[in-house]
Design brief:
This protein has helices at 2-15, 40-52, 73-89, 106-113, 144-153, 173-181, 199-210, 224-233, 237-243; strands at 23-24, 57-60, 63-64, 95-98, 101-103, 130-134, 157-161, 185-189, 216-218. It is of the alpha/beta class and 254 residues long. It has one domain: TIM Barrel. It binds fe (ii) ion (FE2). Fe (ii) ion is lined by residues 26, 28, 101, 161, 220.
Length: 254
């Protein structure tokens, strides 16, 4: 009986109308800053693809990693300015902003302990400053709790990029729950819903959606191949289920 009732609720959730996603808050579309778009032409092609998928605002989040990409507000905003100019020259109607995706390493910890502003996104009535960060794909990160504490005490709202891609959480779901309950927001990659990264990442993404532990969806678009998978991902059942959650993406559309 109970399972029948649950099934009815699930069916209703899957068929009810949902708001389309207007804002993508995770992408690597700025040219020449990381392993995303290399040239302005590639950047423009990605912007065009994302626009075709329905996005009206893109927040570019180039990697910041001590060992590889020491991007700063200066490098990021200079690339943003160039891309905006090129987009407007092409007559494309889409908003573009920029922040970053910080890898949790000693370089980031030093920045968190310092007093220079970090690259965050968010505005509007809440004036939230969302800070997107990623962690090791291979091993649990020992400084994670400290980093979350530092981000929050500096007034940022930490957003963990693609929690479903850290496969060591698969058998440790309670650790993800703990993080979520501790104020870390979760951003799931749209492409994870197709199994693009791995079956395990797909299952973990679905579990996060079932547990209503998703605050943002992001494209994490680096290249054309990602944009192609996104079109398929938008037809997935779990994509609709995710859209029915209280996602924050569209609150960024101002
Ligand atoms: Fe990313």
């Amino acid at each position: 009986m109970l399972s029948l009732f649950r099934k009815k609720i699930r069916d209703r959730e899957a068929s009810s109308p949902v708001d389309a996603l207007k804002v993508d808050m995770h992408s690597h579309i700025l040219p020449g800053l990381d392993d995303g778009a290399e040239t302005m032409e590639e950047s423009l092609a990605l912007v065009e693809s994302l626009k075709k998928l329905g996005f009206r605002k893109l927040i570019a989040t180039p990697h910041v990693m001590g060992d590889f990409y020491r991007n700063s507000p200066a490098t990021v905003f200079s690339a943003l300015k160039e891309l905006r100019e090129a987009v407007s020259q092409r007559g494309m109607d889409i908003q573009i902003e920029a922040a970053a995706e910080y890898y949790l390493d000693e370089w980031f910890m030093d920045r968190l302990r310092g007093d220079q502003p970090l690259l965050s996104f968010g505005s509007g009535p809440e004036s939230a400053r969302y800070l997107l960060f990623e962690i090791s794909y291979i091993n649990p990160t020992p400084q994670l709790a400290e980093a979350v504490f530092l981000m929050r005490s500096s007034g940022y709202r930490p957003v963990l990029a693609h929690p479903e891609r850290y496969l060591y959480f698969y058998d440790d779901f309670f650790r993800l729950k703990e993080l979520f309950e501790n104020g870390v927001l979760f951003q799931v990659n749209i492409n994870s819903l197709t199994g693009y990264y791995s079956k395990t990442a797909q299952l973990l993404a679905e579990k996060l959606i079932e547990n209503r532990m998703v605050n943002f969806l992001g494209s994490d678009c680096h290249a054309r191949r990602h944009a192609e998978v996104l079109a398929r991902a938008q037809t997935q059942k779990y994509y609709r289920k995710a859209l029915a959650l209280d996602l924050l993406n569209n609150s960024l559309y101002v």
